[in-house]
Design goal:
Structural class: alpha/beta
Distance between the termini: 35 Å
Bound molecules: iron/sulfur cluster
Largest sheet: 6 strands, mixed
Number of domains: 2
Strand content: 15-25%
Length: 265
């Protein structure tokens, strides 16, 4: 059974071909070294938070990285209630939930899940520089899928679950004059029955669409270029949509070397 995560759903909704290249064929894309370093730091932060939750020592990591230490201490100061152990609560970091849905395995991994008899709280750590607006976050597939799965896999009603994003400053944010350079901040998203029904309908639509599109050896359709997604897409050259990404103004514009796919010899 094919697994669908929030990231798969997001790509599928933007452009089925992008989902094909990114997840079904796992075509590698050139990555900006600075972005790679930010990802590495974000992974390290998540690892420290998980180890801490498991009661394993983290001092070695924190001593070696002042920014990591500041981020973890900032979070402990900003949200002490999150870290107080309570006997009547189930809590687990990197908690995985899977649900069989319309022929697919919907899957989420929560950074931290806290369950009480009448309440469920999903916590997600973000090492973003600029927290998005709450309304934007509520529309993201991560929020929608994570809340949907928690309701579908527990006895909790939609109104009894919530998701809170915590944003911490990555190293160098101040130097880059980014908005999020102070202490950690959070955005909480509540949930309702109506949102639950909408998410279910959208999941059914997307999974039905994927089932009808998946044919052996066939390509999934490309998005309409006027929607503007190709201009940001790392597969523009492979897709022959490079004009959308690199422009056509006044003669031939070559893509960056890093964006040209390697040809095996
Ligand atoms: S270049 Fe456009 S059509 Fe091709 S995968 Fe990317 S978004 Fe889809």
């Amino acid at each position: 059974m094919l697994t669908l995560t929030q990231s798969h759903l997001r790509q599928l909704e933007i452009c089925p071909r992008r989902y094909q290249y990114g997840y079904l064929e796992q075509v590698p894309v050139p990555t900006d070294p600075e972005m790679l370093e930010r990802q590495r730091w974000g992974t390290q932060f998540h690892l420290v938070m998980q180890q801490r939750e498991l009661g394993l020592p983290v001092e070695g990591f924190l001593k070696a990285d002042a920014a990591l230490d500041a981020a973890v201490q900032g979070l402990l100061t900003a949200a002490p209630e999150l870290f107080v152990p309570q006997a009547d609560r189930f809590r687990q970091s990197e908690h995985r939930r899977t649900l069989a849905f319309n022929g697919y395995a919907l899957t989420a991994i929560y950074d931290l899940l806290v369950l009480e008899p009448n309440q469920g709280q999903i916590i997600d750590w973000k090492t973003y520089q600029r927290p998005p607006q709450q309304a934007q976050l509520a529309k993201e597939w991560q929020t929608r899928l994570y809340l949907y799965l928690l309701v579908e896999t527990t006895d909790l009603a939609p109104e009894q679950v919530s998701m809170t994003y915590w944003f911490v400053s990555p190293p160098g944010a101040e130097a880059r004059a980014e908005a999020q350079t102070g202490p950690p901040s959070s955005i909480a998203i509540a949930y309702t029955k109506a949102q639950h029904r909408r998410t279910e309908a959208d999941l059914r639509r997307l999974t039905d669409q994927l089932t009808s599109l998946l044919t052996p050896g066939g390509n999934l359709p490309q998005v309409d270029p006027v929607l503007g997604y190709c201009a940001q897409c790392p597969y523009a050259v492979r897709c022959q949509r490079w004009a959308e990404r690199f422009g056509t103004g006044g003669g031939m514009v070559l893509p960056a070397i890093a964006d040209i796919a390697e040809v095996p010899l």
